[in-house]
Amino acid sequence: MSIAIDVGANSTIVPGEGSLPGEGSLHGEGSESGTSRGDDALDAYSRVVTSVAEMLLPCVASLTVEQKGRRAGSGSAVSITPDGFLLTSAHVVEQGGTGSAVFSQGADARFELVGADKLSDLAVVRVAARDLPSALLGDADKLRVGQLVIAIGSPLGFAGSVSAGVVSALGRSIPTATGKAMRIVDNVIQTDAALHPGNSGGALADSSGQVVGINTAVVGPFVGQGLGLAVPINAYTRTIIGALMADGRVRRAYIGVGGGSYPLSKRVAGLTKQSQGLQIVSVVEGSPASKAGLKPRDIIVGIDGTQIEDVGKLQSLMTSRLIGNEVALDVVRDDELISVIVVPIELAE
After folding, report:
1. Same domain flag for 83 and 146
2. How many domains does one find in the chain?
3. Distance between CA 145 and CA 167 in Å, rounded?
4. Average of per-residue pLDDT across 11-21
5. Would residue 248 count as lying in a domain?
6. Residues 140-185 pLDDT 10s
7. Which of 76, 79, 121, 298 is catalytic?
8. I need a labelling partner for 252 at 20 to 30 A (CA). Which of 70, 92, 324, 349 fits?
């Protein structure tokens, strides 16, 4: 009988043949088979971690951020293209747009900020380089709780540090803000892989070596110490990264409502084929939502045919293509389904 050890979504390792517990060979005291099994299991885990580390260490840099020629902060960054684009956390570079990037093999290069998006806590910097080792971006939407993940960064200034753990939880949210604009980063990854100051901007990878998150925060100190959070790499954040690389900024649509998830009546749920929508709690005066006649207690259940069940979904659809264009909102008002036309404007920082 073989025993499979699941070390990730893309990797299953079979240590070898053995007996079932109770048959005298797996847990027997001093058993060579038992010792061999323990070694095999450790080797399997170690092989995954070391292979990912060997793959990604050349792609992860330690950043020293400068402001007016003086050190203003530090963090990590991940090379994502051979021609020098590096992905990091927006809060790592908020104190300065230039500095030095040191890679694990000792290469040292100056970087310049290309663009930062505080509302997703993602930023792109660039170094002058050719044929730079670059990481593959994965899809955090495919992660499972309990899956092995490896964090690579520069905690406490120690460049090229590796830690491993599991996905502790999915679907977490963290608040972000820039100026008067506030936003929730959804589907944040929670991990117990050891993270410390300086890990921010570094890679969180799955067992295949694909980067599925950018480490962004450590919960603590004291309460919740050991819980790390990472901004997910998925279809939505890829659009943000692409916008930062191309334009240095992210344009977002804005309609001017605040609210939260709210259960639908059985009748409306039957019509919309969904159990909840986004109930409006506040409408900004003079905003597109206000001009369109939206009111507190209205429940948004769709935008141009796409279902809306929470604020995260609404935010993810507020892309630049909606700016200045008529958008049809499906709204529940007094338990009746109506259509409201709104023209989003660009969200100002």
Report:
1. no
2. 4
3. 5
4. 36
5. no
6. 999 999 999 999 998 776 778 899 999 999 988 777 766 666 666 7
7. 121
8. 92
The catalytically annotated residue of 62, 79, 91, 163 is 91
- 112 belongs to a structural domain: yes
Residue-level pLDDT at 58: 94
CA–CA distance, 174 with 90 (Å, rounded to integer): 14
Which listed residue (163, 200, 207, 316) is catalytic?
200
Residue 23's domain spans which residues? Answer: 5-57
In a domain, 62, yes or no: yes
Most distant CA pair in the chain: distance in Å? 78
How confident is the model at residue 177, as a pLDDT? 67
Give CA–CA dist 271/172, Å, rounded. 30
Read off the pLDDT of each residue in 13-33 and give the average, rounded to a whole number: 40
The reply to whether 121 belongs to the active site is yes
Tokens of 183: 């936003």
Of 13, 29, 57, which residue is a domain's last? Answer: 57
- Higher pLDDT: 160 or 131? It is 131
Taking CA atoms, 203 is separated from 114, 136, 315, in Å, by 19, 11, 25
Domain boundary, last residue among 103, 127, 151: 127
Task: Please report, as a single letter, which amino acid is at residue 308.
Answer: I
Does 220 share its domain with 173?
yes
Same domain, yes or no, for 310 and 295?
yes
Does the structure show a pLDDT above 70 at 275? Answer: yes
Q: How far apart are CA 349 and CA 328, in angstroms?
A: 25
Q: How would you classify residue 141: left for phi > 0, otherwise alpha for psi between -120 and 50, otherwise beta?
A: alpha
DSSP readout, 256-310? -EEEEEEEPPHHHHHHHT-SEEEEEEEE-TTSHHHHTT--TT-EEEEETTEE--S
pLDDT for res 8? 39
Instruction: Give the model's confidence band at 349: pLDDT under 50 very low, under 70 low, under 90 confident, else very high.
Output: low
**Is 183 found in the same domain as 161?**
yes
